[in-house]
Specification:
It is a single chain. With 365 residues, the protein is of the alpha/beta class. It folds into two domains: 101 residues, Beta-Lactamase (2-Layer Sandwich); 205 residues, P-loop containing nucleotide triphosphate hydrolases (Rossmann fold), CATH 3.40.50. The chain is built from 14 helices and 13 strands. A seven-stranded mixed β-sheet has the order 9-8-10-11-7-12-13, with helices on both faces. Strand 5 and strand 6 form a beta hairpin. Helix 9 runs antiparallel to helix 10. The radius of gyration is 22 Å and the shape is globular.
Length: 365
Amino acid sequence: MPADLKVLLGEVIKRSASDLHIGVGVPPAMRLDGGLRYVEECGLLTAFDVEQALKTILTSEQMEKYRETHELDFSFTYRTDNLEARFRGNCYFESRNMAAAFRLIPLQIRSIDDLSLPPVLKDISKRRRGLFLVTGPTGHGKSTTLAAILNEINRTRYDHIITIEDPVEYVYRSDKCLVHQREIGTDTESFSEGLRRALRQDPDVLLIGELRDLDTISAAITASETGHLVFGTLHTQDAAQSIDRIIDVFPPHHQTQIRIQLSSVLVGICSQQLIPKGKEAGGGGRICVTELLIANPAVRNCIREGKTNQIKTLIQTGVNVGMHTMEQSLAVFVKNKILSLDAALTYAYDPKDLQRILLEQQGMR
C-alpha cells in the first residue's frame, strides 16, 4: 500500500481529524473540521492495497464475515509508542470493491463543561428514571455528548450502568458506578434483546446506542417506566421530529397509548450539530450547537394530545428551565463572533426565526 494504514490512523490522531476513508481508485481521505481532504501523497489505492490494509486490523474471523456479508461494524484500540486512541470502523463494498471508514473515538472522555454543553445536562445526570434522547445527524457528536453525561453519572453516583452498543465506542472505567458494556453481535444479538435481558441484570442506568426499530423503542419506554434512567440516540433533526418518529414507529391503533406513555417517561431531548468555527473565531475546530427540550408539564401535555407542532414555542419560552432552540443557540454564537451569520443561517433549522432573533437583539442595544 502506498501508505501504511496504521500510519494513516496515527495521522488522524495527530491532525485531530474525525474520520479516515479508504477505497479503490482514490487516495485516502481525512475529515478535518467537517470537510474531507485527500492525502494526496499516498496516491491512488488499488483493490490489493485496500484488502492488504484491512487485513492488518481485522481478525481472520472478521475478514471472513466481511467477505460473506459485504458489511462489517467493529471497533478497536490503536496503540503505538506515543499514541493511543479508539476507532469505530465500518467495512463495506462499493462497485464490487472493498472500502472502509474509520471514526476516531478519543480515549479521554471529556466532561459536560469541557464540551461547553448546556449545564442543565448535569441535572439530567441526577435523574433516577425516565428517557433522555440525544439526536442529530451522523458524525455530529451524539456519542460524545452521551459519554459526557454517563461519565458524570459514573463519577457522582453509586449505581449500575449497562450500555448496549454497535459497536462499543467510548470505553468507561468503573468509578463510583459499576459499568458493563455489551456489544451487538458479540455480547448480545440485538438492541432489543440486550435491553430486555438488561432488565434482569439489576441496572440503574441504561444506554442504548441507537433506537432503531419498534422492538427497541418499546423496550426503552418499558425500561423507563419501570424505574430506570435510559439514554438513547435518534437520527432526527429536532425535538418535535424525534417525538413524532418514536410514535410513528408504532401501529396506528397503539399510538394513543404510546403518546400517554412517552409523555410520562420523557425527561428531555438534546438535538445538536457540530459546526466549523468561522474566521471570526480564528478558524479551526468545530463547536457544538444545541437545541434542548426539557419535559415540563406543558410539554407532556402537548405530547399526550398530539400537538407536537406547539413544542417549538414551548422551547422558545422555556429559557427559565434551561430550554433553548437551535436558533437561540446560533444567535448567541453570532453575537459573540464565534460564527458568521452566513454559517449560522446555513445550519439553522428555521433561518427566518434566526434572523428575527438577531434583529430583536440589535433593537435592544
